[in-house]
Each structure stands twice: as C-alpha cells, then as structure tokens.
Specification:
The complex is a heterodimer.
Chain A (H helix, E strand, L loop, with lengths): L1 H26 L8 E8 L10 E4 L2 E11 L6 E8 L8 E7 L6 E7 L16 E6 L3 H25 L2 H66 L1 H52 L3 H8 L1 H23 L1 H4 L6
Parallel strand pairs in A: 1-7, 2-6, 5-7
Antiparallel strand pairs in A: 1-4, 2-3, 3-4, 5-6
Chain B lengths: L2 H34 L3 H15 L4 H23 L7 H40 L2 H7 L4 H39 L4 H10 L3 H27 L5 H30 L1
Helix pairs in contact in B: 2-6, 3-4, 3-6, 4-6, 4-7, 4-8, 4-9, 6-8, 8-9
The chains are: A alpha/beta, B mainly alpha.
Chain lengths: 329, 260
Amino acid sequence: MKRTNEIVVGAVIVLGIALLIFGTLWLQGVGFGREEVVTQARFREVGQLLHGNAVKLRGVPIGRVEDIYLESGGEWVIVAMKIESDVVLPVDPVVLLAPESMFGDWQAEIFPRSRYPLYDYSESTDPQVIPGYALPDISRLTAVADQIAGNLAVLTERVEIAFTEETALNVRRAIENIQEVSEQLTGLVDKQQRTMDQVAANLETTTRTLGEAAETVRRAFAQVEAAISHGELAAIIDDVQRTTAQLDSLSNVMTAASQDFRSTVQRADSTFRIVHSIATAVRSGEGTAGRLLQDTTLYSELRQTNALVRALVEDFQKNPRKYINLSIF
Amino acid sequence: MSQAWSAPLAAVGRTALSTLAGFGRFGEFGASVARSFRDTSTWLRLVALQMARLGVESLPIALFIAAFTGIVLALQASYTFTGAVPLYFVGTLVGKTMILELGPVLTGLALAGRVGANIAAELGTMKVTEQVDALETLAYDPVAYLVVPRLIAGVVMFPVVVAFADAVGIVSGWITAINMLDMSTAEFVRGLRLFFLPFDVHYSLIKAASFGLAVTAMGCYFGFTTAGGAEAVGRSTTRAVVVSSMLILVLDAFWAATLL
C-alpha cells in the first residue's frame, strides 16, 4: 500500500511538472524540434511589446520576442528575437514594432529598409543588430487627436466671438471682391498667356534664325578654317592688296574725273543759263521763235494749210490724172 | 457603570481577548510544527500517504470543476465579446482566467471543503477520542506524526492539482470554442498565446502552494484544538472550512496586490 502510494504520487507529480513545462513552452510558442537563432534589434522605445510577442516576415510568423532589455546607458532598448534558422532575412533589414490589432497585442515585423525608408531607425554600431523603430500606438494617436480637438475648440470659440453680422457682411464683400479680382486675374492670365504664346512663337522663330545664322557662321568659320588650312588666305590677302592698289588708282582717276565733271557742270550751268534766257525771251514773245510760239494766227493758218493739203492729197488720190498727165509719145 | 453599558463592552473585550488567545494558540501551534520538522523519521514516511489522499484523490473533483469552469468561461467570453471584440480573445480570456485566477482559487475552495474538512474531522475525532494523547504516550510527536505530513502534502500537491486543473480548464474551453463557437483551433491558440507570460504559471503555482498551506494548516489547527465531543468535531470541521475558504480569498487578494 505504501509503495503503491509512492508510485502514484510520484507519477502524478512527474506528470504535473511535465505538463507545466510543456504547457509553458507551448504557450510561449517554442517550436519543438525546430532550429532557431537569436537576432537582436535596437529601438528607442518598444511601446507595449512583450516577451513572447510574434516576430513576422511578410506577415508570416517566423519566431517570437525572446527578451527585452535596456542597453547599457539606458537610452536604447534591445529586443532579442528567436527566429527560425532557415529564414532568409531581406537585404538591409529593419524591424518595425506595431500593434497587431486594436486590442493591445503588439508584434515585431521585419522589412527591407527600402519599404519604409523615412522612419528614424535606431542604428547600432554592431552590424549584427538590426535597426528598429516603434510605431505610435492608438493611445498616442488618441492623445494627438485630443490635442487637435482642443485646438479646434479654441479656434471655433474665437471664430464665434469674431463672427458678427458686420463681420459676415465684410466677409461677403471680401468674397465678392475676391471673385472680381479673380475674374480680372483670369483675364489677365489669359492675356498674358496669349502674349506668352506669341513671345514663345517669336522666340522659336528667333531661335531658328539664330540657329541658321549659327550654322552659316559655322560654315563660314569652316570655310575660313579650310582656307587657312589650305594657304588660300595669303592669296586672298594678296588679291585684297592688289584690289586695294587698283582701288587707289581708281580713286585717283575718279578724283581727276570729278574735277573734269565739275568743269563740265560749270559749262552746263552756263549753257543752261543761256537756254533759260532764250526760253524767257521766247515766252515773252521776243524774236521769231517767240512770235511763232506766242502768235495764234500762225497756228490757225497752219491748221487751215494742213486741211487744204489733206484735201488736196485726197483729191489727188481720187483723181490722179487731174494732176498728173503722163504721155510718152 | 450601568449594566447596559458594561455588557457590550465586556463582550467586545471578551472577543478581543479570545481573538488574541486564538492568535496565541495558533502561534504556539506554528512553533510546535516548526519544532516537529526536525523529527523527519516520524513524518517522512507518512508524506506519500498524505500526498495520495490530499492530492491524487482530490484530482477528480478538481478536474471536474476545472472542466466546467473552462466551458462556462468560453461561452461567457463569446457572449461578452459578440460584435466588438475579435473572437480569438476567448482563448485569451480562458487561458488567463484559468491560470491566474479560477484554476487556483476554485481548486483551493474545492479542496478546502474536501481536504480541510477531512483533516479537521479526522484530527478532531482523534483529539476527542484521546488518540492524540495515546500517540504522545507512545513517545510519538503527534504534530510530527499528524500535522507535518499533511502540511507538506498540501504545499506540494496543491500546485500539482492546480496545474492539472489549469490544463483541463483550458482544454475544455478550447473544445467548447471549436464545437460551439465556430472558432478554429488556430484562433483559439492565437488568443491563448497572445498575452501569455511564463510568470502567469509561476503566479498560479505560488498561489496554489499558499492555498495548500492555508487549507491544511487550518484543518490541522482546528482539528488539533478540538475540545469536547462529537459536536465539537463538527464545529471544528465547519470552522476549518470557513476559515480556510476565507484565507484563500484573502491570500488571493494578497498575492494579486504583491505580485501583479
């Protein structure tokens, strides 16, 4: 009986202890028979992360938080994560701590830094320690929202105090003015737009012209360069020198011709003066020519003579025998 | 001083003195227990028997209570969480409540009725039938023979029974969740693991050990201080159950205040 009691009690105690150990490990998420490695991450603070919280990669649980402790100095927190050894972490990994749901449970999720590059990660000098960042939880967001709501309440109160009937009228006028100014600005902008379009077109034309000029200059320079390179410049200079000399002699000739021209002009001037005096005399009816030009009688007689001659010719054509009587024998 | 004033004051004085005397007797009893721990040859061979009687034989009632507690917890949690809270928190509530509170406390209360009453009745009967005196006559230390094995058995076996009760409560809650609440095992386990800390288990075991000590100590004390006939045995048994139940609740609050 005594022996039986001892065996039963021993079995119950062993079973109880085994149940406690196995149950605790299972509830902690320990993978039995699975190889795991411990990876550390560094944070400024860890929110509500607890020992045993899930560690995820791309949403898949790959381990759990093994330990959380302050780094020496107390300014940083180190989170030790036990993760499956066959999991390949992304290049340049970072760890983000965030609520897993809205009910206070947190998780550590591993991402490549390129996914969320703007967070203020807690870098470590040890390359084995992954930089980390804890996102604000709902309580902090609520606190910020509460602060914003308070500011809005103050603002609303001030608006209510400031917003009288007169203010409303002023605001309405201001709005009308703004509308008017807006229309004017719209017109101005349209006008400016057209001007700018024209300027742009002109600029384009100018640019094109400049381009062509530049091309011409480029070709000229190319020709000059070619000329220089082929020794044609010396010949051109010689030609220019000869041309200059010829121009010099031509200039001398022109100078002499100019002097002759001046004397010719003087002679022409005196001739013109003579002609002028003759014309003046004619206009005044002096001399034969003057009388011819000034006396209308001669003109009448000439017209009558002309008429008589035309009648004579017509009669002659009609009756040539009247005037010409040709007999040979 | 008139009779009308003196009688209540005398009652208060008697109660205070009686309480102090009770504390004194309990202190004396504790001191004799401490002395008797040295008499290992007497109590060591009796521990296994007491462990079997107090612990192993208490498993059925403890597991029965734990199983139905787990079922009720799962159903009430789902009823409470409907709509607003995700259903996987049923696992969290069942696990946390069973490990931290209901496992140790309900087991402790159940065993206070079963073990505490048993010890008080047994020792009280031995006391009134002078069997305790007979042990002394036979040169046995009655405390080492009767009390120390029961105290050790209570302190050791209560945590074991509570561990089984916690496990059975969680398993019954899980079975209820997947069969009656349209939850999957993965959901329940997720909730179960969500806020689990190894400290929860330590806390549960510490409470269970303290409850075991309280229940066996009260049973032994009230049984050992029984004076009179069969009526006194019944009174001691009742007192042992009531006081040990109250002590369990007081200790529950004490550990919550000091450890959490």
